[in-house]
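User: Is it possible to get a 3D structure for a protein together with its bound compound? The compound here is flavin-adenine dinucleotide. I've pasted both below.
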Amino acid sequence: MYDIIIVGGGPAGLTAAVYGLRAGKTVLVIEKNSFGGQIAFSPKVENIPGTIQISGAEFADKLVEQAMNLGAEVELEKVVGVEKREGVFFVSTEEGSTFEGRSVILALGVKHRMLGLPGELELIGNGISFCAVCDGAFYTGQNVAMVGGGNSALQEALLLSEVCTKVTVVQNLADFTGEKKLAQALLAKENVEVFFNHLSVGYVTENGTLTGLQIKDSVTGNEKTIAVDGVFLAVGLMPENEPFGHLASLNDWGYFDSQEDCRTATEGLFVAGDCRSKRIRQVVTASADGAVAAMAACAYLD
Ligand SMILES: Cc1cc2nc3c(=O)[nH]c(=O)nc-3n(C[C@H](O)[C@H](O)[C@H](O)COP(=O)(O)OP(=O)(O)OC[C@H]3O[C@@H](n4cnc5c(N)ncnc54)[C@H](O)[C@@H]3O)c2cc1C
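Assistant: Yes, that's possible. Here is the predicted structure of the complex:
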């Protein structure tokens, strides 16, 4: 039986592991894909305190190495259920394993919605980005497209317009769905062009490098290609928290409805990182949650 079972091996889960282990607890981290989480997709990360620049993959390796050096046990399996019976958590996986723990931290992260177009997966982190705060600087002096029309898309397009030569915003509806103020600020920018009622229908590449985005006017049916060096997608985020909703309440968008203390309605169950309701989803905020959740788990265990 483990003191703490952590589901999800991204920055939140692995930071939680470090804090739990340093407090003398036994820790198991279960990850379904690859350790490091979303950040592993980022070619360059420049906003981690104390680190001028690092590739997401290298940072991910360091995270897992640090946790394992401290004695974390790890399993590469997909958790499909968590139940609590007589004070013990039973964590079951798709692969058929069941692990027992005295406390559990869910650090499941979030999935960015994609457009589902051919070649999209291969271009993530290599022409396609989900985060202007993280990756906008890499497109300084270049042309980019922003797909989406909600608050995230507007904020990110505004940010990109400060560093990029041109930002083309592609919105499938007749208007933006984000705040009016943001929309007005964006429309006032000289280097921003907006295509309303346009669908993104294909990525254009040359030798594996993204060179354009193909768009289609949903009213006339006309198609055109806009030349871009990068495409930013802001078409929504997708938490994958439903299987655990009976233990920790979910908000209207499917995020764990937990505040800064990372506690849930189930004693001994904590949530951390991008999977919980919060405004800023970044490595530092995920790691901060991991630390808070781990210390809360230790207090519960003690
Ligand atoms: C391309 C890209 C670039 C980015 N660049 C930056 C940047 O420069 N700076 C920055 O601060 N942030 C950046 N971000 C955001 C940052 O990566 C996230 O905020 C951070 O990774 C969140 O950490 P997390 O641990 O909460 O979630 P995640 O990183 O999403 O990790 C969650 C982990 O849980 C696993 N998991 C989910 N469900 C299960 C399950 N049922 N069983 C087992 N495992 C499960 C997932 O596979 C995943 O590995 C970027 C994101 C992307 C996609």
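The chain has seven helices and 17 strands. The CA atoms of residues 193 and 259 lie 38 Å apart.
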